[in-house]
């Protein structure tokens, strides 16, 4: 579970870093090497790893305090945190509060950064009337946008729907999309 959370958080944070990289490459091509210097890249990746490991450690510690006394069958393909919390028979209000808060930090902030980056990319592309620029931008950003769509669409479908109600078949199938498919697309 620890590594599942680490890599899930890391995927979200690194997609935001990649969006910033795309923004710098398309909107400031002449200054790209100054903006995305090696030290900044290392810092962004290291910060993503540290945040992901810290969140996974916190969630794992909180889950260790929870007791499971009834079902031991997980109605999902993967052992994810919201599904385990739904199986608990003890008070999980602290776990749910931390999960919603951390979920907001790890999902909403990176997703917002991605939207802002692509909004600025779109605004700069519109200013240039050339179709060559549009083709280059789409070839640069198309694969990243598809991964972002898969990841965030299924995260919203799986995690937030399973927190609000019992897991269903759609959430179980959606979990197959973001776990093996998203890393393969990267």
TrEMBL record:
Example GO CC term: the record gives: membrane
Cellular compartments annotated: Membrane
**Gene Ontology terms, MF aspect:** G protein-coupled receptor activity; olfactory receptor activity
The record gives the membrane topology as: Multi-pass membrane protein
The alphabetical list of record keywords is: G-protein coupled receptor, Membrane, Receptor, Transducer, Transmembrane, Transmembrane helix
Major location (coarse)? membrane
Could you tell me which Pfam families the record lists for this protein?
7tm_4 (PF13853)
Q: Do the record's keywords include Aminoacyl-tRNA synthetase?
A: no
**Which InterPro entries is this protein grouped with?**
GPCR_Rhodpsn, GPCR_Rhodpsn_7TM, Olfact_rcpt
| SUPFAM superfamilies assigned to the protein according to its UniProt record, in alphabetical order | Family A G protein-coupled receptor-like
Residue span, G-protein coupled receptors family 1 profile domain: 1-186
Is Cytoplasm set as a keyword in this record? no
Report the superkingdom from the record.
Eukaryota
- Membrane-spanning regions, if any? 40-58, 97-116, 137-160
What does this gene product do? Putative odorant or sperm cell receptor.
Instruction: Name the PANTHER family for this protein.
Output: OLFACTORY RECEPTOR
Q: Report the protein name in the record.
A: Olfactory receptor family 1
